[in-house]
Write a structure and sequence with these properties.
The structure is a single chain. It contains 16 helices and 18 strands. With about 450 residues, it is of the alpha/beta class. It has two domains: about 350 residues, Glycosidases (TIM Barrel), CATH 3.20.20.80; about 60 residues, Golgi alpha-mannosidase II (Immunoglobulin-like, Sandwich). An eight-stranded parallel β-barrel has the order 1-2-3-6-7-8-9-10. A six-stranded antiparallel beta sheet has the order 11-12-13-18-15-16. The protein has a two-stranded antiparallel sheet with strand order 4-5. A hairpin with a 2-residue loop joins strand 12 and strand 13. Helix 14 runs parallel beside helix 15. The N terminus is likely disordered.
């Protein structure tokens, strides 16, 4: 009888230990599929949860995911989803880049379970989702401020300081502190383990030490393969594990070209930048994002209305890199989406931009020349951009007039009398010695 009692006690204890261990193990949500999309095939959509729907919630996004998939998008970048600091807050609602708690979600967006459902729904559509991660600073009312003052940068009087004088709503983190580094990696890993996200867009990446990124990305990739996007242009970020970095210079050059500068500015991409990138490294290409549309003009304002905005996007997506559009851009929005307030986007805008992007991304996704091909600038005019892309002996050439008037330019002899298909209209054209394009007109051609 005593031996039977010991046996029962052993079984009960073993069951308790087994259940306890099982609870502590991170489990991917049942039914969730992780979309694995090659870096070179990524088409990014930056989504500001606050502005994307009238409700500004995770749940309200789900019914519109098919709309994004139909647009040709396969990776959604969610701007920060965490609670926003209230101390030293800027504006009515504060910046999402002022993080109060790395382990929680902004209650105005919904619950953690709502967020899990959103991730699941994105994966069920065959798309990926990455989180915007703010590693350089926190809100002033983040619990770390009082619990770990030494985790923050301080002045000579022991006062915690912001990263820059103008960023008064956030406190600068001290990356000389190993404990803070470890906790930051733990927090990033949490969202991969517990919610199965597919990577991060890392804010102010150049303001954080490179060796931290190397350690963080290495740790995260032990959990699952992830897509890593750095808000930074420094090529050293690629060697730390980032797949894609920003192209601030490319964005600046596109703006300059449309404001009457010489189109040869784009040769910087070929001769100086892309030629020196390591294998598997990409630039993110865009004509706006949350920063630009908050402080700069919107694409229709920058590039000469809707026709110019279309031409700028055609050029940008044809440059070697990863294309990205920001919410509202697909309807030609001219509203400046300030970070500190809610902006209502007019999704019923009839500018024709949505159909334009559907067609453009369809062409991009179905033509490997535009995703993988070698890349060159064809010198035909100071007013016309011409980009060649070649893959497996198949050649495409993208030509766009960046002026608000008709422009005629000479065609290089290698293209004269060659037949091409315009993949936008399916028309066949044969190049003569000249090409004339109306204001902001563009063609995307595939050699026959």
């Amino acid at each position: 009888m005593k031996r039977l009692s010991y046996l029962l006690l052993f079984i009960i204890c073993f069951s308790f230990v087994f259940v306890s261990c099982k609870k502590e193990s991170p489990v991917t949500p049942a039914g969730t599929q992780t979309a694995t999309i090659k870096v070179e095939d990524v088409v990014l959509y930056e989504l500001f949860v606050r502005n994307f729907t009238p409700e500004g919630t995770f749940n309200a996004i789900i019914p519109r995911l098919q709309e994004l998939k139909d647009l040709g998008v396969n990776t959604i970048w969610l701007m920060p989803i965490h609670p926003i600091g209230e101390v030293n807050r800027k504006g009515e609602l504060g910046s999402p880049y002022s993080v109060k708690d790395y382990y929680d979600v902004n209650p105005s967006m919904g619950s953690k379970e709502d967020f899990r459902n959103l991730v699941n729904a994105i994966h069920d559509k065959g798309m990926q989702v990455i989180l915007d991660w703010v590693a350089n600073h926190t809100a002033w009312d983040n619990a770390w401020i009082t619990a770990h003052k030494d985790w923050y940068t301080q002045d000579s009087h022991g006062n915690i300081i912001p990263p820059t004088p103008d960023w008064t709503d956030v406190a600068d983190l001290n990356y000389n502190n190993a404990d803070m580094r470890n906790e930051m990696i733990k927090a990033m890993s949490y969202w991969v383990k517990e919610y199965n996200i597919d990577g991060f867009r890392c804010d102010a990446a150049e303001m954080v030490p490179n060796d931290f990124w190397a350690a963080a990305i290495s740790a995260i990739k032990k959990i699952k393969p992830v897509f890593m996007l750095a808000e930074g242009e420094n090529k050293l970020l690629f060697s730390q594990g980032f797949n894609v970095c920003f192209s601030w210079t490319g964005y600046s050059d596109i703006k300059s070209i449309f404001s009457a500068s010489n189109t040869s500015l784009l040769t910087y991409d070929v001769n100086t930048d892309l030629s020196s990138l390591p294998s598997g490294a990409y630039r993110m290409r865009y004509t706006t994002n949350h920063d630009e549309t908050s402080w700069d003009k919107t694409p229709p304002e920058l590039f000469g209305g809707i026709p110019g905005a279309k031409a700028a996007s055609v050029i940008t997506i044809s440059l070697k890199g990863i294309p990205m559009i920001y919410n509202g851009q697909e309807v030609g929005s001219t509203i400046h989406q300030n970070l500190f307030v809610k902006t209502n986007i007019d999704w019923g805008n009839t500018s024709g931009m949505r159909d334009f992007y559907k067609k453009l991304f369809s062409v991009y996704n179905s033509n490997p020349e535009l995703r993988y091909g070698s890349y060159g600038i064809v010198d035909i005019s100071n007013n016309i951009v011409a980009i060649s892309r070649t893959y497996n002996n198949s050649k495409m050439i993208v030509i766009a007039n960046v002026r608000n008037n008709q422009v005629t330019a000479s065609i290089p002899s290698e293209y004269v009398n060659k037949r091409f298909t315009n993949v936008i209209t399916n028309d066949t054209i044969t190049f003569q010695s000249n090409i004339s394009l109306n204001a902001y007109e563009y063609v995307i051609l595939k050699q026959m």
